[in-house]
Amino acid sequence: MRSARGVTAAVAALLICSAVGRAALPAASSAATGSLAAGSFEVTSIVPTSPPRPTAGGGCLSKLTATFVFFDGTLEGSFTAPFVFLRNGACDEPAAQTFVARGTFSGCVGAREGRFTFVFAGTVDATPVEAPKARGTLIVLSGSGGLRGLQGALELTGVAGVGGTYIGAVSI
Question: Which of 13, 27, 134, 165 is the most exposed place for a label (fewest CB within 10 A)?
Answer without folding.
Answer: 27
